[in-house]
Amino acid sequence: MTDLHLPGERTGPARWRLVRWLASDGSGVRAGQPLAELRPAEADGAAIRVSALATGTLWHQVKRGEVLHVGQVIGLIE
Question: Alpha-carbon distance 69 to 26, whole Å?
Fold first, then answer.
């Protein structure tokens, strides 16, 4: 099982909001495939996409609209 973490940099926003999942819960995904789109939670900013680190089945761990913290697990790939 591979954890899908919300990436982040020390100089970037600490909190992000999940705008949408780009792959359905329980769907098959490939390494490198974009899976989720996020925006900074407190300010306007460019969206980022989180991509799969492995090939397998995606299981969402958070819901659309949730505020997330850098490093938080947002999904699992089994």
Answer: 23
pTM, two decimal places: 0.86
List C-alpha distances in Å: 50 to 6, 46, 64. 7, 13, 14
Strands (E), 9-70: 15-21, 28-29, 34-40, 48-51, 56-60, 67-69
Cβ distance 26 to 43 under 8 Å?
Answer: no
pLDDT tens-place string over residues 6-57:
887 665 778 899 999 999 999 999 999 999 999 998 877 888 899 999 999 9
Cβ 19 vs Cβ 34: under 8 Å: no
